[in-house]
Amino acid sequence: MSQVVENTCHNCGASADASASTCEYCKNPINITNFSMVTNLDSETLQNYVSSYRKEIAKTPLDIKAANALCLCFTRLRMYDRAKSILDPVIQENPEAADLLFLRAVVALEGKKAFMAKRADINSAINYLDAANMFERNPIHYQLLAYIKADFFDRKGYKIEPSSDDDRDRAKELGISSLDISTLYELLNVQK
């Protein structure tokens, strides 16, 4: 006898087929898996997701997927301290989770331009990105490194190796798309 696996929409709570990615009732994503899924959601819908993922985190505090989704929502809502409080313990237990390390680097900047960030926050972001790259070579990681280095170090006349150009070239070699770049800047809350 085969079991029917069901999923629940994290926005409206409706049951959904396990293979579905969009809820047939509210027409929103069933699960949040990346930032582009939350960019066009209004605050009320984001709060529905936050409430749902908080309940999930309460049941399983170290769930990587729930932590990622909740922190994407918090980042979109510009609630960086809350995102940090969720990410830090999950990263502590899962230090190889590259997506969470990347998101933690974004959160370290707290929605400020890198140029305006504290040096400690810049160092923290770079360290999280270096760790993420140890586990997964992702073009978006290198693009974020390039942005941080260009906006913080290059604008202030500091030299750093590898340079912002080296990281940007690496992102291109790995196949970064223009959509990835625009999504990154939206996630950072800065103008391109």
Please give the structural blueprint.
Blueprint: E1 6-8, E2 15-17, H1 43-59, H2 64-76, H3 80-93, H4 98-108, H5 119-135, H6 139-154, H7 164-173, H8 178-188
Antiparallel strand pairs: 1-2
Helix pairs in contact: 1-2, 2-3, 2-4, 3-4, 4-5, 5-6, 6-7
Task: Summarize it.
The protein has 192 residues and is mostly helical.
Q: Number of domains in the coordinates? A: 2
Number of strands: 2
> Helicity, in percent?
55-70%
User: Rg, please?
Assistant: 18 Å
Describe the structure.
The protein starts with 5 loop residues before the first strand and ends with a helix. It is built from eight helices and two strands; from the N terminus they run E-E-H-H-H-H-H-H-H-H. Strand 1 and strand 2 (15-17) form a beta hairpin. The protein folds into two domains: 1-94, no CATH class; 98-192. The chain has helices spanning 43-59, 64-76, 80-93, 98-108, 119-135, 139-154, 164-173, 178-188, and strands spanning 6-8, 15-17. With 192 residues, the chain is mainly α. It is elongated. Helix 1 (43-59) packs antiparallel against helix 2, helix 2 (64-76) runs antiparallel to helix 3 (80-93) and helix 2 packs parallel to helix 4. It has a two-stranded antiparallel ribbon with strand order 1-2.
